[in-house]
Amino acid sequence: MNEPSQALIQTSLGDLPLAARGKVRDIYDLGNSRLLFVATDRISAFDHVLATGITDKGRILTQLSLFWFDLLKDVVKNHLVTADAAQFPASCTPYLEQLKGRSMLVKRAEMFPVECVVRGYLSGSGWKDYQKTGSVCGITLPAGLLESDKLPEPIFTPAAKNNVGHDENISYQKMVDTIGERPAEDLRDLSIKIYEKARNHAAGKGVILADTKFEFGLIDGEITLADEVLTPDSSRYWPAETYSPGGAQPSFDKQYVRDYLESIHWNKQAPAPALPPEVVEKTKAKYLEAFHLITGRADL
Questions:
Q1: Cβ–Cβ < 8 Å for 81, 108
Q2: Do 280 and 52 meet the contact criterion of CB atoms below 8 Å apart?
Q3: Are 44 and 232 in contact (CB under 8 A)?
Q4: How far apart are CA 203 and CA 176, in angstroms?
Q5: CA 92 to mean position of chain CA atoms
Q6: Distance between CA 38 and CA 237 in Å, rounded?
Q7: Is 260:280 a contact under the CB 8 Å cutoff?
Q8: What is the residue extent of each domain of the chain?
Q9: Model confidence at 255, in pLDDT bands (50, 70, 90)?
């Protein structure tokens, strides 16, 4: 892979119609029920996109999603058409250098308005909830659990999609009220099945998949896995060799970024600060380490 000289913060694809711009992804409408997902190198922390990107982060996330889509294809259909930029529509041809390795041509799905979160370990907002209530999203757990403890079995804790700030944890009943009983059951059961297969694969690579979130939609009436899947941005990965319940665990994500922002006492208000080169490099290294361990591949 040729190392780009700088991070790709925002795509510029001429006249291609921009359908959405998220914290990380730029999505273009190519017509014919096809979308172009482009993972930029933007990084967010504390609900703000930072002024500095993480070089190659978009490529890493895209290649990891592609790995998981392939591994999970016997469990669930996904929205991928192709990630080979040479097979994209002709309208994309002038932008192939921007798109290579970080983009996917996908089928447009009718998305469910919920995040499907599966937790196998007690961490993050789940740990905070447990400390206050002894439960997570209304699911009662055994007393005396420690932070980062493995749960007796994975639990499904949906969230309502929120375009501003964090997604909002909701009860399973609220999910049923929102999308219906049968779709809620199907998404819950499928999410846990996907998590268990991914967790087992990661465990064989020395990685703990503590929790993750999925997004699903309907394509031709069939539940389909969409967006990114099982990346360090949507999942909590820990190195198994250092796992020790009773506190927060080191993770394969943007912890260096969070730690730096805390160290400079940023007030978590816009504008978000830039990152020094050493934080960028350490963060990129963590994303790459997760990719190499999970996929077994030496190169992107």
A1: no
A2: yes
A3: no
A4: 32
A5: 25
A6: 23
A7: no
A8: 1-108, 111-242
A9: confident
The DSSP symbol for 85 reads G
User: What confidence tens digit (pLDDT) does each residue in 170-193 have?
Assistant: 999 999 999 999 999 999 999 999
One-letter amino acid at 138 equals G
d(CA 138, CA 51): 38
Chain centroid to CA 158: 15
Please provide the size of the chain in residues.
300
Pick the CATH number of 1-108 from 2.40.40.10, 3.40.50.1820, 2.40.10.10, 3.30.200.20: 3.30.200.20
Who's near 49: CB < 8 A, 6+ residues apart? 23, 42, 43, 272
Contact 81, 34 (CB under 8 A): yes
Could you tell me which of 239, 244, 281, 246 has the C-alpha nearest to residue 260?
281
First to last CA, the chain: 7
Tokens 């943007």 belong to residue: 254
Cα 155 to Cα 118: distance, rounded to the nearest angstrom:
6
Let me know the angle formed at the C-alpha of 157 by 153 and 160, rounded to the nearest 5 degrees: 165
Distance between CA atoms of 190 and 19, rounded to whole angstroms? Answer: 28
User: Rounded to an integer, what distance in angstroms lies between the CA atom of residue 111 and that of residue 263?
Assistant: 39
Q: In terms of CATH architecture, what is 111-242?
A: 2-Layer Sandwich (3.30)
- How confident is the model over 226-246, as pLDDT tens digits? 999 999 999 999 999 999 999
Cβ atoms of 256 and 286 within 8 Å: the answer is: yes
